[in-house]
Amino acid sequence: MPKIVDHDARRAELAAAMWRVVYRDGVGAATVRSIAAEAGWSPSALRHYFATQTELLVFAMEHVMAEAAGRFTAEARTGPPREVAQRMLEELLPLDRQRVREAEVWLLLAARAQVDPAARERMTEADEGVRLAAELAVTLLSGGQPADDAATARLHALLDGLTLHALLHPDRMPPHRIRDLLAAHLDQLAAAGAPS
């Protein structure tokens, strides 16, 4: 009788091995060979699930998107709109080791998006998620009025810029500075959106 393989369970096992490598050694160390070794598999067995490095990064980005969504639970949406907006957007920023590693995946995938359709598709989805979070924050801060497109675009650009600067210049952009810059921008949005 042929052996029945649970492919979803195998992918979950690989995901766990991949993230152990990423968290321990950085996203650059997450190669087919290193993940196979971490999972106790042969590289050829892993290539059955992920034929290229980009496929691994796309899979990792799916995990990043699910993790970010999971961190912003219904419980986190309670409280004053200004505080809710801050908490929600901080979940998208590299403020701890896990979110730094997630942002590294985002950056590597972004670099491949120019030449790889699969990377481009996943980056488009991730980018849309950040845009929607920015739009929600602007709506919250304007007292429920429809989000202004320009304010949403500025906030989205700020989130991407803070992420990039935190990855490239962590000494100049530590977590407390990221929080302070985001808070200052959200305060401006709240002041602009406050009813007169």
Automatic annotation (TrEMBL):
GO terms for molecular function: DNA-binding transcription factor activity; transcription cis-regulatory region binding. Keywords: DNA-binding, Repressor, Transcription, Transcription regulation. Residues 31-50 bind DNA. It comes from the Bacteria. Residues 8-68 form the HTH tetR-type domain. Signal peptide: none annotated. Coiled coil: none annotated. It holds the Pfam family TetR_C_6. The keyword Amino-acid biosynthesis does not apply. PANTHER family: HTH-TYPE TRANSCRIPTIONAL REGULATOR BETI (PTHR30055:SF234), HTH-TYPE TRANSCRIPTIONAL REGULATOR RUTR (PTHR30055). This is Transcriptional regulator, TetR family. The lineage of its organism: Bacteria, Bacillati, Actinomycetota, Actinomycetes, Micromonosporales.
